Amino acid sequence: MNQVDYLRISLIDRCNFQCQYCMPEGSDLEYIWRQNLLTDEELLTLMREVFIPVGFTRFRLTGGEPLLRPRVVELVRAIASLPQTQDLSMTTNGFLLAAMAQGLYDAGLRRINISLDSLDPETFDKIIGNRGRSRWQQVWEGILAAHRVGFDPLKLNVVVIPEVNDREVLDLAALTIDRNWHVRFIEFMPIGNNQLFGDKGWVASAELRQQIRDVFGLTESQVRGTGPADVFQIPGAKGTLGFISQMSECFCDRCNRMRLSADGWLRPCLLNETGQIDLKNALRAGVDPAELRERVSQLLAIKSEINFKQRFSGTTKGVYTRTMSQIGG
Q1: CA-based nearest residue to 244, from 220, 255, 258, 228
Q2: Which of 52, 93, 57, 68 is CA-nearest to residue 13?
Q3: 266 near 276, Cβ under 8 Å?
Q4: Separation in Å, CA 1 to CA 235, 249, 304
Q5: pTM for this structure?
Q6: CB-based contact 108:88 (threshold 8 Å)
Q7: Which residues are CB-neighbours of 292 under 8 A, at least 6 positions away?
Q8: What's the number of CA atoms in the CB half-sphere (13 Å) around residue 192?
Q9: For residue 189, is pLDDT > 90?
Q10: Confidence band, pLDDT 50/70/90 cuts, at residue 108
């Protein structure tokens, strides 16, 4: 496996959307009490005294919706100012981004992923579980603001669900032709949402690539990342198309990441919740940072390769105890 140097940090488990694939409608989610979240200082302490010393240099801020975190711009500035931080990025739904994009950029954030599962406002609202005023336009304005202030790369995440938004694949792919935007098609995973998965299933990346190839042509891109996406490009396009195929293809050998939940649990893998470390309560109990570094180093040493076909080996009872939003996915 690759050297594990990339940490996904969930800042909050709450979200202002309730997307079908992340926070299923009707699910009884128990949010983390604010006093049980890692504080800014606790997170920065863990970064300075545990994560960076054991080799983490690249960080992504996630949620829930990370822009709901109080003082998030100040936290971004603090992380970006750490001399060992080689890369800092964020994944957001974009709803609050238009007013915050410049501040985040000025604080040191340079890369951003924005969820955009549909170009049709009605379909978009269906996916995010919105029953009130449409939110598509405000998300689109957030995307334009991020582009305007200079985020590069600017990535758009698309979870493809059959009979919901799969007919928009070509339109979404076309966003990369005239703009230096990078669209990432993600195979839908049933973590925390087995019912929708059973009803709708998922679309294999190979099928999506063929759809795009038949209309626009498709070549492997010269732009490569260190993440799980297989990157392609429409000939002559300014941007790229990435395919994250956690269902149809295994990319464990390329994995370079771990996940930290908003309440301080270090998780070795999205599909593996065994062997997690409760860093928050250990820190609050006064455990020496040297001991925490040793625990994290041991977890790094045994980080296993678990793809979807072996998913139940990463659970204790055959089901995941947290949804994607609670994991920070």
Answers
A1: 228
A2: 68
A3: yes
A4: 32, 16, 9
A5: 0.89
A6: yes
A7: 46, 49, 50, 279, 282, 283
A8: 23
A9: no
A10: very high
